[in-house]
């Protein structure tokens, strides 16, 4: 996988890195590190104003992947419609689990966090840390849905809000589809 023609991603591809979300492959460079020659993907994340270099031969193990396919995006939207599953554990433990799901880069897991932390107008106010996690998950999910559907982030947020407001529907079919 070290030849330029055999690479999984090419310059201009939108990719997802688990800890940072959606980025774009800006270049494929050859760099010398500790006396070894490495071929790396240069991935830029405009929303974080950050550049990441991922060795091409370690991209898969690092979690670098293509945007979610249409069926995965659909399943994530169905997940949002499901009933929130909130474990009866201490908040600090749940917060760690939510953080791990967000940083997993898995769109379905991120959708579960958005679903579980979403508050309707009729529900009690969230704590600061709950709101931070919710907004982080919503932002990460919206960016990937926007990139996958070739729409802007605001349109993606609206799409997610529609799925979240559709929660009133009977949860049984959504739970069956998500499983």
TrEMBL record:
The secretion signal range is none
Q: Which Gene3D superfamilies match?
A: 2.40.10.170, CarD-like, C-terminal domain (1.20.58.1290)
Lineage: superkingdom: Bacteria
Family matches, as Pfam families: CarD_C (PF21095), CarD_TRCF_RID (PF02559)
For this protein, the record's InterPro entries field holds: CarD-like/TRCF_RID, CarD-like/TRCF_RID_sf, CarD-like_C, CarD-like_regulator, CarD_C
Q: Where is the CarD-like/TRCF RNAP-interacting domain?
A: 8-118
Its BP terms in the Gene Ontology are:
rRNA transcription
Which PANTHER family does the record cross-reference, listed alphabetically?
RNA POLYMERASE-BINDING TRANSCRIPTION FACTOR CARD, TRANSCRIPTION FACTOR YDEB-RELATED
- Protein name in UniProt: CarD family transcriptional regulator
Q: Which organism is it from?
A: Brevundimonas halotolerans
């Amino acid at each position: 996988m070290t030849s330029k023609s055999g690479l999984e991603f090419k310059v201009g591809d939108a990719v997802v890195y688990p800890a940072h979300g959606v980025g774009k492959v800006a270049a494929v460079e050859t760099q010398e590190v500790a006396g070894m020659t490495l071929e790396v993907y240069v991935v830029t994340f405009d929303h974080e104003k950050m550049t990441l270099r991922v060795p091409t031969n370690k991209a898969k193990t690092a979690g670098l992947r293509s945007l979610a396919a249409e069926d995965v995006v659909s399943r994530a939207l169905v997940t949002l419609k499901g009933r929130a599953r909130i474990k009866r554990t201490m908040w600090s433990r749940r917060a760690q689990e939510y953080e791990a799901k967000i940083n997993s880069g898995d769109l379905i897991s991120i959708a579960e966090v958005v679903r579980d932390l979403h508050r309707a107008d009729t529900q009690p106010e969230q704590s600061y840390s709950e709101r931070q996690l919710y907004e982080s998950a919503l932002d990460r999910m919206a960016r990937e849905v926007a990139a996958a559907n070739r729409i802007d982030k605001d349109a993606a947020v609206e799409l997610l809000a529609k799925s979240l407001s559709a929660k009133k529907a009977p949860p049984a079919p959504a739970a069956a589809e998500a499983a």
